[in-house]
């Protein structure tokens, strides 16, 4: 009799324990608003103007990193943001056009992702996204890319305790919605910094340039002057200026004549004919490893790019005036000039950025 009572008590105790366990919340996490500090090494970039309504925190950046590498954001769980933005390729795509769900090809070359914190004039080649958070969710919904609805993405993330916990850590509760997905992806992309190239260390007095790299530097920053060919520069800094090597503008760099233009570029966003075939001026940081080049990936090497600016500019109604001025003579670059320019641009490669574990997949 005593044994029966004892066994009954054990059964009751186990039943209560199991019931309590079932009633306990499956998600256990705490909000953590520890600020995230941008990984700026050499101090050659100015203080960025980050949005006040989306302060960077360690947990928000981590959530964004998880989402960036998450295949569930695509319709068939086959690709993620990282599928078209490889860290080893400067967060760009070595393919001319990225491969989306069902093997669909994108219409433009995938842009490199780094130093987004210094971009304040729209995103994408045509500037159709005003803020980085807007850019972040558009590829998810693009039928040529991830081809998924945000409603489905939210449902898939809600089905995983891992994401509920991380949304709590990042935002204070387990609510998953479009705004929070966008904010988290924005935060992670803001965290991707490149400022430790050989050239950065040169500016900081830590390294010296070779004779060829130094001559390339002088050509890069030297202005075009048709009256003094011996001292005329390549005038690259006309568009690729400042320590981020871009001007945050949309420009027509003479790829096509009016008759050959098949991409409206910035005009499709502004509706202004004066913006036809203008595209975002990209940073030249890490340029040696982010081929192919231009919005349509038409050039495979930096030498091809230099040949274009030296002798291949096409006249059109929206061509940048400074480039139009060079058409009569070209940039007058010799083979040695081009080699020196390429060697200088190679000093903009940041190997630390290319292998930084903070930007790698968390899975």
List keywords for this structure.
363 residues; 2 domains; 1% strand; globular; mainly alpha; Cytochrome Bc1 Complex, Chain D, domain 2
Written account of the structure:
The protein has 363 residues and is mainly alpha-helical. It has 2 domains: 58-194 and 354-359, Orthogonal Bundle (Cytochrome Bc1 Complex, Chain D, domain 2); 210-346, Cytochrome c-like domain (Cytochrome Bc1 Complex, Chain D, domain 2). The protein is 36% helix and 1% strand. It has a two-stranded antiparallel ribbon. The model is unreliable at 1-22 (pLDDT under 50).
CATH architecture name of the largest domain: Orthogonal Bundle
Helix percent band: 25-40%
Task: Briefly note the CATH topology name of the largest domain.
Answer: Cytochrome Bc1 Complex, Chain D, domain 2
Write out the CATH superfamily name of the largest domain.
Cytochrome c-like domain
Strand order of the largest sheet: 1-2
Largest sheet: 2 strands, antiparallel
**Uncertain regions spanning at least 5 consecutive residues:** 1-22
Structural class of the secondary structure composition? mainly alpha
SS field, number of helical segments:
13
What is the element string, with H for helices and E for strands? HHHHHHHHEHEHHHH
Separation of the first and last Cα atoms: 55 Å
Structural Rg = 26 Å
What's the number of extended β-strand segments? 2
What is the 3D shape? Answer: globular
The top-level CATH class of the largest domain is Mainly Alpha
Mean pLDDT over the full residue set: 93
Total count of domains: 2
Approximately how much beta-strand content do the residues carry? under 5%
